[in-house]
Amino acid sequence: MRLIPALLSCLALPAFASTPTVAPAPATATPAVLIAGDGSLLEFHSSYDEESFTGRFERFEARIAFDPASASGHFDVAIDLASAGTENDERDEVLLGAEFFHVLAMPKARYQATRFSRLADGRFIAEGTLSLRGVTRAVPLTFAWTAGPSPRLEGSATVPRLAFQVGTGDWADTALMPDAVEVRTRLQLQPAP
Amino acid sequence: MPYRNTREHWGHVSIALHWLTAGLVLGLLLVGFLMESLPNSPFKRDVYVWHKSFGLIVGALTLLRIGWRLAQPAPALPTGTPAWKRLAAHTGHAGLYLLLLLMPISGALYNYAANFRTPLFDLTVLERAGSVDRELRAIAGALHEWGAWLLVALLLAHTAAALSHHYRLKDTVLHRMAPWIRPPR
Fold first, then answer.
1. In chain A, whose CA is at the least distance from the CA of B121?
2. Domain limits of chain B?
3. In this structure, are residues A128 and A140 in contact, taking their beta carbons and an 8 Å threshold?
4. Could you tell me which residues come within 8 angstroms of residue B130 by beta carbon, excluding any fewer than 6 positions away?
5. What residues 48-87 of chain B have any CB closer than 8 A to a CB of chain A?
6. Which of A52, A56, A91 should we substitute to test contact with B (largest number of B Cβ atoms within 10 Å)?
7. Binary contact (A93, B40; C-beta < 8 A)
8. A99-145, pLDDT tens digit by residue?
9. Which residue of A47, A51, A86, A176 to mutate against B (max B Cβ within 10 Å)?
10. Contacts with B41 from chain A: Cβ below 8 Å
11. Of A48, A89, A169, which has the smallest distance from its Cβ to B132's Cβ?
12. Burial of A130 (0-12, 13-18, 19+ CB in 10 A)
């Protein structure tokens, strides 16, 4: 435990703060980057004309670094919008088309977060931003973190689709399709290769 | 009030069912052939819901018609009609009844295999399947499309035969089903 004396010496002697013998304190250590493995999923829930449906992104790349002790880290998730499916080919054609995801023009969405806060119930909030269809907007993600050799992240967020122009023209009618889309994710994390 | 059929006349029920079905089927065929090329929009989705709903209604009306037809006599073909024409008429009518059942059945099957709910406008007759069955959808879709073309062919023959009875043979066959058209003299 040479760390504490080293830190103390830093405080006492700021002139020597750059001494190479100072090791980083564990609390502020950068957590390892993890990626989503088998059993991970990214889903969205909405309804059309009062009939609810669930969609799923088959392809997305999550790079997650998170330290629950200090509630710090960084998330970077790239979502392949063309991989969205709702178990209905006709609806999916509309979903991928110009009036919804417009995958031909902007094939990917991205979720990034570097600021986190802790909730009283032990869960966390990622104060992240979502980039979708050329719009970047704050979208907080509430999540539970289960630590372990392969940590699990279970979270949900509410995405206001109209702010991202998802469902334009006549599809913007919230009486047919609500603005709020519930996004849910479960990431079964493993070390990045 | 002759609501029942006799060996000479169609009753009001049969006449009403025939023309109600005729109107709905013409609309369904027209919309059915056009709706696929509509641009994706809430309107297109509504058109499909109407097509499905009216199609189910035609199926129900057809069951009712077949029951009504079997429960009582049907007017006879004019005496002296040659055997081949009798056979053609009976085959054509059987084919029409069959198609009026096959079309809603194949349509509903296609709809179910595509994982849509089965609608009667805002009502749900059958909840969606939960997943897409592409093989069943392809079979049902082919049946529905070929059935539609066969129905068009049979309806053209049916209409041509009715007009031929009226204008060429000058019998009462068309007048019996369309009493507002004067019988030929």
1. A49
2. 12-97+144-177
3. yes
4. A87, B115
5. none
6. A91
7. yes
8. 999 999 999 999 999 999 999 999 999 999 999 999 999 999 999 99
9. A51
10. 169-171
11. A89
12. buried
pLDDT digits (tens, 9 = 90+) for A137-192: 999 999 999 999 999 999 999 999 999 999 999 999 999 999 999 999 999 999 98
Q: What is the pLDDT of residues B34-90, one digit of tens each?
A: 999 999 999 999 999 999 999 999 999 999 999 999 999 999 999 999 999 999 999
ipTM: 0.88
The owner of tokens 């049902």 is B140
Q: Are B184 and B174 in contact (CB under 8 A)?
A: no
* Closest among A135, A130, A10 to A75, alpha carbons compared: A130
Residues in A closer than 8 angstroms to B114, CB to CB, are: 88-90
Report which secondary-structure segment, H or E, holds B103.
helix B83-113
User: How close A183 gets to chain B, by Cα (Å)?
Assistant: 20
Residue A91: in which H helix or E strand, if any? helix A89-96
**Cα(B17)–Cα(B67) distance, rounded to whole angstroms?**
12
Q: Is A40 exposed, middle or buried (0-12, 13-18, 19+ CB in 10 A)?
A: middle
Nearest to A87 among B40, B43, B130 (CB): B130
- Sorted by where each begins, the domain ranges of chain A are 1-29, 31-191
- Compute the 3-state secondary structure of chain B and give helix, strand, coil in percent, each to the nearest 5: 65, 5, 30
- Which CATH superfamily groups domain A31-191? Lipid/polyisoprenoid-binding, YceI-like (2.40.128.110)
State residue B82 phi and psi, 5-degree precision. Answer: -65, 155
**Two tokens at A168?**
């334009």
How far is the alpha carbon of A131 from chain B, nearest alpha carbon, in Å? 25
SS3 category, B163? helix
Residue B7 reports pLDDT greater than 80:
yes
B86 close to B100: Cβ distance less than 8 angstroms: no
Q: How far apart are CA A3 and CA A158, in angstroms?
A: 43
